[in-house]
Design goal:
Layout lengths: L2 H12 L7 H7 L1 H20 L3 H35 L2 H10 L5
Helix pairs in contact: 1-5, 3-4
């Protein structure tokens, strides 16, 4: 099982008994969001330091679009979670998680 699949199993187990909200997904993936915000701020800051305002705007819009894209994914996932949670075979999810040494 690859890293992405393990992370998906962790998400399923994390949200098993609670609603999957947009805020919950952001908090679950806080490292990714923090990295994206820090990288974006650093890139824009460097461009402004070198007086490249056009490039600063370009990078700012690019990083902003990444955040909006992720937010769109989270909105869709939170809306489909009630159906997904009913369709999942929870004993199989738990078995796969224990086989891969993931916390339940």
């Amino acid at each position: 099982m690859n890293r992405t699949q393990k992370r998906q199993l962790q998400a399923y187990l994390h949200f098993r008994d609670k609603p999957m909200s947009v805020l919950g997904l952001i908090l679950f993936n806080w490292r990714i969001f923090l990295l994206l915000i820090v990288a974006g701020a650093a890139t824009v800051g460097v461009m402004l330091y070198f007086h490249s305002t056009f490039q600063a705007w370009l990078f700012g819009v690019a990083y902003g679009s990444f955040l909006l894209r992720d937010l769109g994914h989270y909105i869709r996932w939170s809306r489909t979670w009630p159906l997904t949670s009913q369709l999942l075979d929870w004993p199989k999810v738990e078995r796969m998680a224990s086989e891969n040494r993931l916390a339940a």
